[in-house]
Amino acid sequence: MPQSVPTFAELLADTSKSAVHLETRDVYAVAEEDTDFANFRAGKGYNLDDRSSWWTPFHQLVSEGVARGVSVRRARVVSEPVTEYIRYEHAITPQNLAAGEDVRWLPRSQASDLLLPGNDLWIFDNRAVKFGIFTGDGGLVGHEMTYDPRIVGQVADAVAAVWERAVPHKEFQV
């Protein structure tokens, strides 16, 4: 029987302390970002002050979680020189910050001695992990969940090691 995987909204709603995201890919090919990425490639930016032009349901969920006292953090492990997609992510990260996320970056060259999970993931209250499974080209295949305390602990330790070394967004240059 296929595993039922809760949505991000459901998981965040059930979170009281922390939601931590680890991203380890240099390219993503997620359909809902196609237009924004194309605009970035064409040199079109966004106006952070015009929130209605970029605020999404995701930003709203994060903002509401942070207002409830949930710490929302994101760590990105990236190759250098960075890809065009990572430059795009860096350019739109102020949107995440405006929603209340704390975002850090770790050059892959500084992660060689860390044991990293094989997939991107979210950790919710150190009790549940939602893995994102991607194709080699960056397309999202699906998600897997685990509540196994051993796996959650290993993943949380790995992400904590990344977070400790990572550079805050405002200090990371692309």
Looking at this protein, list some descriptive labels.
7 strands, 33% helix, 5 helices, seven-stranded mixed β-sheet
Structure description:
A seven-stranded mixed beta sheet has the order 6-5-4-1-2-3-7, sandwiched between helices. With 174 residues, the protein is α/β, with parallel strands linked by helices. It contains five helices and seven strands. The mean pLDDT is 96. The longest helix is centred in the last third of the chain and has 17 residues, at 149-165. Helix content is 33%, strand content 24%.
In short:
By secondary structure, the protein is an alpha/beta fold. The chain has helices at residues 8-13, 34-41, 57-67, 84-99, 149-165, and strands at residues 18-23, 71-78, 102-107, 120-124, 128-134, 140-146, 167-168.
Give the structural class: alpha/beta
Quick one: biggest sheet? Answer: 7 strands, mixed
The low-confidence parts are none
What count of helical segments does DSSP give? Answer: 5
Q: What would you call the shape?
A: globular
- Percent in helix: 25-40%
Total number of β-strand segments? 7
Q: What proportion strand?
A: 15-25%
Q: In sequence order, what are the helices and strands, one letter per element?
A: HEHHEHEEEEHE
Distance between the termini: 44 Å
How is this fold's topology laid out?
Elements: H1 8-13, E1 18-23, H2 34-41, H3 57-67, E2 71-78, H4 84-99, E3 102-107, E4 120-124, E5 128-134, E6 140-146, H5 149-165, E7 167-168
Parallel strand pairs: 1-2, 2-3
Antiparallel strand pairs: 1-4, 3-7, 4-5, 5-6
Helix pairs in contact: 3-4
